[in-house]
Amino acid sequence: MSEIKLSEVERIKTESNYLRGTIKEGLANQITGSISADDQQLIKLHGAYQQQDRDLDDERRKQKLEPLYSFLIRIRVPGGVATTKQWLEIDKLADTYGNPTIKLTTRQAFELHGVVKRKLKATIKGINQTLLDTLAACGDVNRNVMTSANPWESEIHQQVYNDARALHTNLSPQTTAYHEIWLNNELVSGGEKQEDFEPLYGKTYLPRKFKIAIAIPPRNDVDVYANDLGFIAIAENGKLIGYNILAGGGMGMTFGIETTYPRLGDLIGFVKPEDIVDAAKTVVIWQRENGNRSDRKNARLKYTIDRIGLNEFKSAIKNELGNKLESAKPFHFQSNGDNYGWEKGFNNKWYFTLFVEGGKVKNTDKLQLKTALQEIAQNHKGNFILTGNQNLVIADVDENEKEKINQLLEKWKLNKSFSGIRRNSLACVALPLCGMAFAEAERYLPSLVDKIEEYIKTLNIEEEDILIRMTGCPNGCARPYLGEIGLVGKSPGKYNLYLGASFTGDRLNKLYAELLTEEEIIAVLKPILADYALTKNYGERFGDFVIRKEYVNATTDGINFHSNVKKSM
Ligand code: SF4
Question: What is 8-324's CATH topology?
Fold first, then answer.
């Protein structure tokens, strides 16, 4: 039998001495703003991506300069909970070392963009001093653990958050390379220096990235089905009794390769709260041992499960967990978006969910969001919570502090309402910084929504919640295949249009039209939206409507995502 050729990234990880590579030497090299190709792979596991400003490529080439390199730094925020002190410190780091913007990601993390190489170490050190970190924020490991960001709704939210933190801690890499490279071996948050050993991941870590989220019904605000491993909290009489487990979700695919597809997690059972870490580790180890290490396009858990078989996977997990793995319990989701505005919690505290378009916290002529949030953070004693929809919750506001916060929201014009389509819009970073992007996303979606809004106002459906998601490539960072309207960049200014995902995040959409310009997107959507306004059933969601009216066939499984596409295309 011929030996399987491992992918290049596997070689890089194997030879890296637990993620060291030559990152340290690369940082010291002042001749270039980049690091070596091998280190660019490794540095992802430290939470950074090397990027280049593609808007400036031509000009720099003419001037015989290398591209303008910089780094994106992703900061893990388990469950999205950050103190206002941390917010202010991250805000200052963005001003000092990056472009003065904080990006709130679709996985409840912060991102700083535009950090040049010589400032990378000071930035990561500064982040660690806030008691947050960047280790494992990217790369072939478990990433930031998400949870429902609405703690006012029940007492079990705190327990679920604690379980998310336990997953975060137990699934973090143990390498000391991170401290060695970024912190000069100083242990900022306590503990003793250990010898290198990765008991969970081994020397080569996972075959591909791994994502975990916990949802608390009836909200699916973390898109739990889109994760390699999803947990659905189950409560009885107001008490948390455990978690249903979903396995094998993931959004990414590659155009033109039908063996790649988005897929939703399959329900495989239920565990008690005290077994959640064991269950997660068991699945991680199975993927570590069985995942495809020769072809990164087929390496996520979703493909491993489809290759080996769901029943085989379930039996392997059952063999390890024994009686800890029980049958899944009933549950029901109502939506996967956020509720905006003020809500009073069971604990008599107040919570304000703020819409942050594209997750971008910055100052513009129209909106001084960054300054506004600085002032709120300076005046607020509770936390800020990042949601899985790139929004922000001003959390734990005491009754007697609410008026003060409200005045600040008014002063900075943050208590505006938005149309149903805008408040349910998600976009990834894309151009100019993401090297994978074929087209714009976060810089463009707001203006496209302006045009769609104009039209839906004439139909009197501007209050209808419709999920619209856009990415600059098919990798799926803003989960476009769970948009009732999904737009995925295929070439500059042109998008594939997908329709028909469910509003609750448990059905993928389906390709409806390819390579559309803005004019064509609007022309294609207009008659469908008009039909929706006229003939929708009471309470019918747009994603369900387009299937009932046979604009698209329903995608019932990732494996049939590319099939059953309407011939009219
Ligand atoms: Fe970049 Fe593609 Fe992810 Fe958008 S979806 S951020 S273009 S990799």
Answer: Sulfite Reductase Hemoprotein; domain 1 (3.30.413)
Domain(s) labelled CATH 3.30.413.10 in the chain stretch across 8-324, 425-560
Between 519 and 184, residue with greater pLDDT: 519
Catalytic residue among 13, 103, 117, 211: 211
Instruction: List the structure tokens of 530.
Output: 């008009």
The answer, yes or no, to whether residue 72 has pLDDT greater than 60, is yes
107, 428, 469, 479: which one is catalytic?
428
Count of H-run helices and E-run strands, the chain: 16, 20
Architecture of the 425-560 domain: 2-Layer Sandwich (3.30)
Residues 341-411, CATH architecture: Alpha-Beta Complex (3.90)
Answer for the pair 552, 542: CB distance below 8 angstroms, yes or no. Answer: no
Tell me if 441 CB under 6 Å of ligand 1: yes
Tell me: pLDDT of 188 over 60: no
- Examine residue 432 and say whether the peptide bond preceding it is cis (omega within 30 degrees of 0): yes
* Residue of 117, 209, 302, 360 marked catalytic: 209
- CA separation for the pair 172, 170 (Å, rounded): 6
Q: What is residue 154's predicted lDDT score, i.e. its pLDDT?
A: 85
CATH 3.90.480.10 domain extents, the chain: 341-411
Ligand 1 centroid–CA 361 distance in Å is 19
pTM for the full predicted model: 0.95
- How many angstroms is it from 492 CA to the middle of ligand 1? 14
Q: If pLDDT is split at 50, 70 and 90, which confidence band does 190 have?
A: very low
What integer pLDDT is reported at residue 194 of this predicted model? Answer: 55
Active-site residue flag, 138: no
C-alpha–C-alpha distance, residues 528 and 488, integer Å: 19
Q: Are 390 and 106 in contact (CB under 8 A)?
A: yes
Task: Label residue 275 by pLDDT band (50, 70, 90).
Answer: very high
For the residues 143-153, what does the mean pLDDT come to?
Answer: 89
CA of 480, closest atom in ligand 1: 5
